[in-house]
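dumping this here before i forget
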Amino acid sequence: TMIGAFVVGAVVLAVAAVVLFGSGKFFRKTELWLTFFQGSVKGLNVGSPVVFRGVQIGEVTDIIVGFDPTKLEVLIPVFFEVDPKRFQDIGTRVETSDADMHKALISRGMRAQLQMQSLVTGQLLINVDFYPDTPANLIGMERFKNKMEFRQWWEIPSVPTPLQELEKALSDLNIKQITEDVRKAMDGIAKLASSPELHEGIIVMKETLVD
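structure:
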């Protein structure tokens, strides 16, 4: 009897600990989303927050490196869970399927973007917001079906950060050609400043102004 009571008590304490310290995380319903970011995801970790206009709506659950040997292509899907209770209906509820709602949000401009969480630690977070003037580049999960545990994930297109756009713009510049053009311009200015014609022209201009 004492051993049985001890075992039952331990189970009760374990369940209570899960409920209290997990804040109901194991019992609440979440939506599963993923996105493919362009470039490096350094600073983004499992547990990093997912926010919508500053309000945390979920967290990152997994980051994997997917390698396609046929195309020699590397894809890095980032998986995250979103708590639907963070979104409350304030208008008339329109009955629609999850797939239709997902398509509507994507067409409206819902995108995911990496943003800096802390300048000191360099940690990143995922910001979900509406960017209606950006293309919806969906990569899809079809190639991952036979390689990992496949569940119903809703893909959110990603948009590059301003820093990534700046890096791309700088990489597109022909720095060597620009440097050569600047050097030629400086040589031309130096030759003009030391040319005797310029000095003669200044003397003639002075005489003209005096007259």
